């Protein structure tokens, strides 16, 4: 961020975040930002709109780009930012006002911590972090938090129907789907090393949390140039009931059924095409190549 006395910021605001509860926060958020910056606000009105707005924006007149919403909003804003050449990208800030804000946890922000996030932006402290790039046969996109296949997709689709429950929606949806014990045969390459495994899911993490509360990848770091893989071997319902609560503290990694690995590049194949769930969205399908772009993005942190 340039050392200007009164920075210019572009705010992408999702009024539909948190089942529409975010809309009432816009006047307060705008007022807080205008205490130290000039603000232009663009509101989203449909899925994919944030990506279009950012891709079409002339970022040369801004000192920072802010995403106000949940993980899905951040995902869209990130992909709009990556439509610009590297030299034209500006620092990215997050204002967590959505149902799920898993990426925010690595910035020590909880859902609804929008005042604290604005203080991070006001401070102008910047950090370079890793970005994940996903290549499928039909598309390329980017993520900051996590991408999964199998159970994460099933849970994501179920949680959409339970958003009225707030942060508990994803937890309940995940447990409901996990109890079905549905598994898939994955073929995975980690920096060229091959792994074949029957698993309920594959999760590839750039940061530690998913669904806001699950510490799925406790060893993950935002800037280490590595992605963290998590798989779960087939297990009984009794064993699942024992394992599930441990995800909140990251203790699941000590169960013998849980496989964890780290790699710079991960390739995923499955006998049948499986949908992919990046950062609170459902987009693309296997086969996919996921690459860590080390410290490729500047954020307010």
Please explain how this structure is put together.
23% of the residues lie in helices and 31% in strands. It contains eight helices and 15 strands. The strands form three sheets. A six-stranded antiparallel sheet has the order 6-5-15-13-8-9. Strands 12-11-10-7-14 form a five-stranded antiparallel sheet.
Feature tags:
five-stranded antiparallel beta sheet; 301 residues; single chain
Helix segment tally: 8
How many extended strands?
Answer: 15
- What is the CA-atom radius of gyration, in angstroms? 19 Å
Low-pLDDT sequence parts = none
Structural class: alpha+beta
**Percentage of residues in strands:** 25-35%
Q: Please state the overall shape, judged from the principal axes of the Cα atoms.
A: globular
Fraction of residues in H or I helices: 10-25%
N to C succession of SSEs: EHEHEHEHHEEEHHEEEEHEEEE
Strand line-up of the largest beta sheet: 6-5-15-13-8-9
């Amino acid at each position: 961020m340039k050392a200007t006395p009164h920075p210019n910021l572009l705010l992408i605001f999702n009024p539909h975040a948190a089942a529409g509860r975010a809309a009432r926060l816009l006047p307060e958020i705008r007022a807080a930002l205008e205490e130290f910056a000039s603000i232009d606000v663009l509101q989203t009105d449909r899925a994919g709109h944030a990506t279009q707005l950012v891709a079409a924006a002339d970022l040369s007149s801004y000192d920072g780009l802010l995403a106000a919403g949940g993980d899905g909003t951040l995902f869209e804003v990130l992909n709009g930012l990556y439509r610009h050449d590297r030299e034209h990208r500006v620092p990215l800030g997050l204002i967590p006002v959505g149902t799920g804000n898993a990426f925010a946890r690595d910035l020590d922000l909880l859902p609804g911590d929008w005042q604290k996030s604005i203080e991070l932006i006001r401070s102008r402290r910047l950090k370079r972090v890793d970005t994940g790039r996903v290549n499928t046969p039909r598309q390329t996109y980017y993520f900051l938090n996590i991408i999964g296949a199998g159970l994460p997709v099933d849970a994501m689709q179920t949680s959409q129907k339970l958003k009225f429950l707030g942060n508990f929606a994803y937890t309940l949806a995940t447990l409901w789907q996990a109890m079905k014990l549905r598994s898939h045969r994955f073929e995975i390459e980690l920096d060229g090393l091959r792994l074949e495994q029957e698993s309920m899911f594959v999760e590839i993490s750039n940061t530690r949390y998913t669904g806001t509360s699950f510490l799925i990848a406790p060893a993950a770091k935002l800037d280490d140039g590595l992605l963290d893989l998590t798989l779960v071997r087939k297990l009984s319902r009794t064993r699942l009931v024992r394992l599930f609560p441990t995800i909140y503290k990251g203790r699941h990694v000590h169960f013998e059924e849980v496989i964890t690995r780290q790699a710079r590049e991960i390739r995923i194949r499955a006998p049948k095409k499986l949908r992919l769930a990046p950062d609170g969205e459902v987009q693309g399908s296997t086969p996919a190549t996921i690459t860590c772009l080390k410290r490729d993005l500047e954020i307010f942190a």
